[in-house]
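User:
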Amino acid sequence: MESIKGILDLLGAYPTWAKAVLLLNLAFALAVLVFARTPVAEAVAKTPTSSGTFVLKVSGVRFFPQQEEVEVQVTAYVNGTAYRYPSVAGVEWLAVASTMSGQTFSLPKADHYELRFEVLKRLKSSRKEVSKLVSQEVLTLTKSASDLYRVHGFDRTSGTRSGTIDGEVGWSLEVRP
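Assistant: Predicted structure:
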């Protein structure tokens, strides 16, 4: 109680106009604290999603030269985890065409994503012979991106990779909606 009396005595020593300015400043500060407050949930929702979770979309495959009657399996390796395309509805192989359906894979949250692809292909007419296409390129990604990943033929018996680009996989890495 004495401290309040001390504050009032101190204010009494000032002229009326100074008391009015001080009172207006206090009222303004109180209004800012009450009305400009952002709820915590709203502040979290506005936080940038640069370190959010991502999805990998595989959109299709094409070969050089273009080949008809080819079926594929694509394996995307993301941070060492394999994701196979196609892998829905019991489909094991997918016919290559310009109208290929894509597939989306949810990725665990990470600081970065190391991405590479391998492709297995076979002719529809002779499903026993499967050839492999690979690349030595490993993509390191920290934000949304999309591109074509080029793959080369691979001879399993000699362990030799072809020097020519034999195909490409369409892909995109996007922030989860």
